[in-house]
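User: Design a sequence. Structure:
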């Protein structure tokens, strides 16, 4: 969800999730939160919601006795939409779902949704 760049794409993703639920089924959705002031990232409501986050692919370690190829770490930047409080629940309702329960845990917003 948080890798999709538009509100429309995020709503479409939720609609697809809800459409695949069996009657009475529920879906758990986790997204990165904007409110992470106490984490190492330090994002807060004053920051942009749409960010590029570096992801480092560590070079393969060479075992003792093997020839070193001098590989280097590679950094890739991934798109994230950081959700504000209440935004995930709004997205679920806009997609035709019902929010059963929701909350915040370890820098993520989460919600349990079911079809209407």
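Assistant: Done.
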């Amino acid at each position: 969800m948080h890798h999709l760049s538009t509100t429309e794409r995020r709503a479409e993703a939720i609609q697809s999730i809800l459409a695949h639920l069996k009657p009475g089924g529920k879906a758990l959705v986790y997204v990165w939160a904007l409110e992470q002031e106490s984490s190492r990232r330090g994002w807060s409501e004053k920051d942009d919601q749409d960010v590029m986050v570096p992801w480092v692919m560590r070079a393969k370690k060479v075992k003792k006795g093997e020839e070193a190829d001098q590989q280097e770490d590679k950094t890739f930047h991934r798109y994230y939409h950081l959700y504000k409080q209440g935004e995930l629940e709004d997205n679920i309702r806009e997609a035709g779902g019902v929010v059963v329960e929701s909350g915040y845990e370890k820098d993520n917003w989460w919600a349990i949704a079911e079809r209407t």
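The helical segments are 7-19, 87-94. The longest helix spans residues 7-19.
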